[in-house]
Amino acid sequence: MITIVVVVTILLALLAEGAIRFRQHLKYGQSNPSVTTLYKTDQATGLRLLVAGAKQGDLIINKQGFRGPAIPLSKPEKTIRIAFIGASTTFSAEVRKIEDTWPHLVTQTLKARFKNRNFDYINAGVPGFTVQESLKNLKYRVGKFNPDIIFIYYATNDFSSDVRDLAGRKGNKVEKPQEDSWLTRNSVLWFLLKKQIVVWHRQRSAAKPSAKKFTFDAKELSKLFEKRLGNLTQESKRTAKLVVLATFSPRLRQSLSPEERIKAAITAAYYMPHISITNMIKGYEQYNTVIRKVARKNKVVLVDVADKIPPDGTHYNDSVHFREAGSREMAKYVISKILDPVGKLVTAQK
Questions:
Q1: Which residues pair with 303 in a beta bridge?
Q2: Fewest CB within 10 angstroms: 61, 217, 269, 341, which?
Q3: Residue 22 to residue 57: CA distance in whole angstroms
Q4: Exposure of 312 by Cβ count < 10 A (0-12 exposed, 13-18 middle, 19+ buried)?
Q5: Cα separation, 73 vs 259, whole angstroms
Q6: Are 93 and 127 in contact (CB under 8 A)?
Q7: How confident is the model at residue 20 (pLDDT cuts 50, 70, 90)?
């Protein structure tokens, strides 16, 4: 009897593995997609960059190593070029079609609005990047394309990285988001099950008042972010005629009910298991305060989108990444705030 149960269990697991791999193949173009196939370490800069020409289902990296339409290094006449600088929330892997990503939508809307000018863009968002890595990316890669407009969208990677560093300094065990093993690397079913269990546990742990979490001074924590973002903004001003900073729009907010906060904390709790949901919200708010301060200090355009995207599962895939609906809302709000400064730039270039 035990043998029959074991055999049936193995067969069901194999069937489930096959079904998941088939679904992954339909969605990503391969049965066991790994983000490592999209990246390489650049020897010159030390940056973990996207592989030029790589493809993973609908995710296509152009010949310059960015997600989006290929553009010439030499800017065509009467063209205004935009560089969107950020991380995974700019890259927008959760939005499968390039045409539905918010950088693409912003560019196409500007093109339709200012018909006497052509617009092209670089989606310089690289998943996992912090502000410091984007500064190097701007200096060595993006800047040579001579963008006229630089749009910066950042916060969550720097926040979670700063939290992990502080946790380590305070003696807290710094847990890796996902333990690596042979089974994790080779079974999609096991990888997804294990990740879901970890996410579920960390969501609920972060919501418990009694959970052992360390506290921090959000203002103190954000000081290095302020310095890094200031450096990136200043370098952007040296590179482009118009620089735009956007506050960060997380799904996790003060206005949500306790139940909604747990749902919204799905990935925030996964990457920041050391702190409570309350402190996650305080951290995001403080980092947005810093973004506003850096924009004022450097006299650049601010798009304050922090709480403008509806914080629900229709607009967000997780705690920070947009679905198609969120991407559209992001693009609409960005356009409403940059039309005037972009119009002035167009007039000045006549």
A1: 246
A2: 217
A3: 13
A4: middle
A5: 49
A6: yes
A7: very low
